[in-house]
Amino acid sequence: MVEVGKIYEIEIGGLGSAGEGVGRVGEFTVFVEGALPGEKVAAEIETVKKNYSVGRLIKILRESEERVEPFCKIYPECGGCQLQHMSYPAQLIWKRQQVVDAVERIGKLSGVEIFDTLGMENPLRYRNKMQFPVGKNLEIGCYARGSHKIVETETCQIQREASDKVLAAARKVLQKFHVAPYDEDSRRGIIRHVMSRVGLNDELMVVLVTATKNLPNEKNISKAIRAELPSVASIQQNVQPYHNNVILGRETKILFGKPTIRDRIGNLNFNISARSFFQVNTAQAEVLYRTAKNFAELTGRETVIDAYCGTGTIGLYMARAAYKVIGIEIVSSAVDDAKKNARENKIRNAEFLVGDVVKVLPHLEVTADVVVVDPPRAGCDKIVLETFARMNPARIVYVSCNPATLARDLAILAELGYRTKKIQPVDMFPFSSHVEAVALVEKI
Fold first, then answer.
1. Catalytic residue list contains 401
2. Using CA atoms, how far apart are residues 348 and 335, in angstroms rounded to an integer?
3. Parent domain of 226
């Protein structure tokens, strides 16, 4: 047993799911943020739980060859990235290992081919979506690690350059008009977050997330933002009145310009609204979707069900190689975008339905040859997987952003008569601890 406040020398053998170093003191697991595999560190124990403890890195006694100097000056404080101190090739190796460990330990599956992680040639400036909280003094930036303290951010090397301009403009305009920041404790104030989306040719959307429907001086604020950002195509207000950690609310109001901006994946254009889901790394989204399409093995005769379809990106990417695509999504605005995307890309063999996958699927009078599913981090409810199995598709292509829930769901599919053949990890979020993966699951 380790003691709080005591310093231990620890050999780091691996990384945890959040990118923290993992070592042992005796048989007791210790997580040390900032430590890398192969290092020996001195760490002070800060927290002790029943099965593990958390230590604070005091000194690196033996340094890993994969340790590098972080490129961001606020990295030690900021919670946006977890792995800037690790070389990019080593990140890719570790992300594959995350998938391997989850499949073997959680899914209890064997014989699954897991490929090397597909990374980026240039892993900087990749995020097309920024959403930063606003602090009590109208500071705007990332949350500090493990807290809701805001680290003022002027530039972010993983965001598109246009988002830096949004940060500067929003800070200036909010201060000029003395917009009251929302306070989580008193539940008073107006502005909660500033969000931007950057589309094709740097087309720009700015979203002000407020706790109230009323935004004082909204016309002047919109005019001032346009003066600071002449190329802005859309300025919107999103209302999020609830006391929770959800960033966007259900109501969105256009203050200026268009309701959507456009981006491009492969040879398809997509319309993106403030609330709709769209992959934040456009370049790697094409890698991800190409992998999913290859796994689907389409010949032009298949009916494809695209569950949790969002704005229709994966389904439309596959549509020209399939007989028919049916997308299902619970967010109605995303379905509107998907239908518009199909029309604008002249794709006539795709339809999109609003509703819960579990409720919609049983009523579809079609035979599903291939099911494509890209669920939230929590994965699929068992009833969803059982519904897929009842449709008896030859293949299920599972796109996941969480190796743990992916492995859990693959194990359930194994019980339902499906075998996981191969998995391709894809690095959608360089310098973070997250990894995306595409799994091919076949009917036994």
1. yes
2. 15
3. 129-264
